[in-house]
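Bumping with the actual sequence this time:
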Amino acid sequence: MKKILLTLLILAQLVVVAETKKGTAPVSQPKSAAAPKPAKTETVGKDGIKRFATLKEAAEDYAKALQEISNYGSRELLQTINPNVDKYVSEKNDADLQKKWDETNTMLIEQFEVLVYKINENGNNGEVIFLIKGYDETAMNKYLNDNYKKYAKIDKVRSQVDINIEEYIKLQYEYLTKTKKINLATSKVHFVKDSQGWKVTEEKK
């Protein structure tokens, strides 16, 4: 799944540049209201591309858009990490189990976090390095395998493994809520300042 998500992240960068010309992006709505922040000095230039008074503001806006579009795209593409577990949880009609499973899905599918890592400003030219964070799924799978006795019973006589899905969901949920995200990749993006402010530059073809 990680390869799919990283591919979506790359495609999202292209979408961000295109959407700056419209001033909008097809992003999902936040689940809770964030604390109020100072208003950004955002304007839309004559060419339809968003500008900002400072490179820092332009970079932060780009990071937010990249994160939202990447997570929106992965949610639209993947929907769920396991349809069979979806069905099982739905049939159990257990509100707490459903909540944990829904949040587990969200944490894994919409896992990208994009941060402004470094800003280099040189006159009217700017270069920003973004840090992309997410979960170490290899480490998570190892943790689940190492602790399989908490949710799986092996019947050697019948050569069968019985899985307690509730315990599996609980173990995975606890791991995700207690584990910090790791650095997955970095991305370098160029910005330019004109008479109207700072804007992201399109890659030359």
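The tokens above came from a reply further down the thread. The two ends are 30 Å apart (CA to CA).
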